[in-house]
């Protein structure tokens, strides 16, 4: 059901009528609005047929409103001003939407990749206010599906159900130990079956790290019951350095510790721990505004000093 009468002209016709009343000529109004004079004249005649009364008196000296036309012009002015106010309000809403970005990211992405991406976004769009939340990959997917975030970043071999995604980086999990651990001195790689039988210090279920490791060890009967389950890369590294046992985590998280020999990477055999890192958003939608801009930045080569 429409609320408008069939006698109410469209907004463009009302704007033309106001221009004719202000300029006193259909020709000058047509020039101002960028249309031909015949087209403007035809539109005025069509509007008069629609309204049912003559709106303009035409003469060689120009056009002026009839008595009925003056009434319609006054009403039309209110309609056009209201439409302009609506348009300005919509622009303000879009600017407010485009000035904020809600991101939820897995811990590895949030800690080791997101700072550089957000710095680049700030340089490109300094007015954008960003809210960054961290969660494991399963919770990231849940937040994005619930509409709590404009863009999510997950770790794991597949895109979560209900989401579309794009690979933005590649990562590899490594097993690390303290320098005094027996695995730090062995020459032969640790096999998949050995790794599966060894209680490890791991991330919690639902994390992308845990999912990748579980898939890699499924062919060996699955991972042994963890020695510890911890919820951050920082906690995992601290556990490894204190000798709690072998730890599996992202290679991105231990670059400094491996370079300074505070931790030692254990060579592996028969275990593929590579994984993609993905940006995700609800299926059927496309990232817009700052979310689209951030997604574009993740695909640019990183700048290294």
UniProtKB/TrEMBL annotation:
Keyword set includes Transcription: yes
Sequence ranges assigned to domain HTH lysR-type in this UniProt record: 9-66
Stretches for region Disordered: 281-305
Gene3D superfamilies, alphabetized: Periplasmic binding protein-like II (3.40.190.10), Winged helix-like DNA-binding domain superfamily/Winged helix DNA-binding domain (1.10.10.10)
Residues forming coiled coils: none
Top-rank taxon, per record: Bacteria
A Pfam family the protein falls into: LysR_substrate
One GO molecular-function entry: transcription cis-regulatory region binding
InterPro entries tied to this protein: LysR_HTH_N, LysR_subst-bd, WH-like_DNA-bd_sf, WH_DNA-bd_sf
Keywords: DNA-binding, Transcription, Transcription regulation
UniProt keyword Transcription present: yes
Similarity comment: Belongs to the LysR transcriptional regulatory family.
PANTHER family, per database record: HTH-TYPE TRANSCRIPTIONAL REGULATOR, HTH-TYPE TRANSCRIPTIONAL REGULATOR CYSL
Name this polypeptide is given: Molybdate transport repressor ModE-like protein
Lineage: Bacteria, Bacillati, Actinomycetota, Actinomycetes, Kitasatosporales
